[in-house]
Automatic annotation (TrEMBL):
The keyword Cell membrane does not apply. This is Response regulator. It comes from the Bacteria. The modification 4-aspartylphosphate is found at residue 55. Residues 5-122 form the Response regulatory domain. It comes from Okeanomitos corallinicola TIOX110. The lineage of its organism: Bacteria, Bacillati, Cyanobacteriota, Cyanophyceae, Nostocales. SUPFAM superfamilies: CheY-like. Pfam families: Response_reg (PF00072).
Length: 126
């Protein structure tokens, strides 16, 4: 089976690093990182990841706007998106689901549990 490719879009460099290390170590997935919504959209088009972990609160283009752009693009609209966010009240979860996002994972997350959370959400085996 081909190795899963995950795109992590977060403006916080340490979140990118922790996420990359955890997903590569625990799940043996390939992890690509982006520091902004615009960069994430470009990398999603170029790398065609199996899933995207997308931060909500980013400067310039937030995660909701980046998601809208991904959904509007025929080359990226089928890629499942999971939000990484500190904004995770029930109302937020309902809104994210209505927009078409797969799920939301609360920040701060438990690094060693992240791969399991992503795999469970997407129906992948580890």
């Amino acid at each position: 089976m081909a190795k899963k490719r995950i795109l992590v879009v977060d403006n916080e460099e340490y979140i990118q690093e922790i996420t990359k290390i955890c997903l590569e170590t625990v799940a043996d997935w390939e992890v690509i990182t982006a520091s902004s919504g615009k960069e994430g959209i470009t990398k999603a088009e170029n790398y065609q990841p199996d899933a995207i972990l997308l931060d909500v609160m980013m400067p310039d283009m937030d995660g909701i706007a980046a998601f809208a752009n991904l959904q509007a693009n025929p080359n990226t609209k089928e890629i499942p998106v999971i939000l990484l966010t500190a904004k995770i009240q029930d109302a937020d979860r309902r809104r994210y689901a209505q927009l078409g996002m797969k799920s939301a994972i609360a920040k701060p997350f438990k690094p060693l549990e992240l791969a399991v959370q992503v795999a469970d959400t997407l129906g992948w085996s580890l």
